[in-house]
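Might I ask for a little of your time on a matter of protein folding? Here, with my thanks, is the record as I have it:
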Amino acid sequence: VNEVTGKEDLLQEDLSNIVDVGKEIINSDNVDNYVKKLVNHIGKVVFVDRLYQGSVPSVLMDKWEFGSILEKIHADMPEAQDNDSWNLQDGETYDDDVFYQPKVTAKFFNSKDTFEIRLSFTDKQVKESFSDATQLNSFVSMLNTAVENGMTVRLDALIMRTINNMTGETLNADEDGVKAVDLLAGFNATRTEPLARENAIYDPDFIRYASYMIGLYTDRIQKISTLFNVGGQERFTPASDTHLVLLSEFAKGAKVYLESNTINNELVQLPNFESVPYWQGSGKTYNLSDSSKIDVKVSSGAKVAQDMIIGVMFDTQALGVSNLERRTTTNYNSRGEFFTNYYKAEAGYFNDLNENFIVFYLGDEPEEE
């Protein structure tokens, strides 16, 4: 008995016989407990048939049957001229026969990712493992679900690579902090005591400032400007075409540390957004330093590594995965009496550096003098 508390100390209890953790192969000693000769039968069969929905931003676009290349045609905005109708001069000539050619540019995208999953099915042999056709159909359905999940994982990876490359291109090209916005530097510029980088996403004042800046940019990109795209083209993005993707740590932090403690929380809510648990990978422990980081090589050959990326905002025409095609071909092997399905998929993807794309991140803390 513990003399301080008057209670017995906790003793170790053997629970190894309480919970069955399962075996992949039944051993020959699985016999009944009566005559010790009868083999135990399977009483219930459960199929792990869970469809994976994925968790990536919705940037899938339409598909087409013929052709491969995606062509984007853009007409430059003509400059308005002064109208002389109310300033006519005696003896002046007003020429009507000048040809004004529209300035039109076209960009072509022809990158494509193709992949397949191969899976074989026996014609007769598999029947010996099941009691009836219903169980067999459930087993085949489980295998098909596993294939669908594999396709979803691969397509999710393609979508995230498309976003991450555009993020890297923007970080690499930005020199003035307009397309790649260092929210921590902006916040610390308003304070006498700088906020530590690792504490930022838990600080209500910082989250409030970040929400304010992100909301501000949704207004800014609606005005035509050359500031918010790598190509320096005149572009604007209506609110209906603005796509905002936030890292989960920041998005959840905004709800827990800011909205939940605010009476009129609709005033501090972020614009409509989608969230992702990581940009490129979770690492081994889902540390923020891993989930918030990208490490990519962009089209110029430059290597871009940046962590603490909390969100990206872009025009729906800035990037996409398009012309997704799915098909299945089958080959039957008469000798072995099995057939193999080849589940194939292909999808085009593109980054258009002439469209608006903004990165929000937390830069390094300033060094103390």
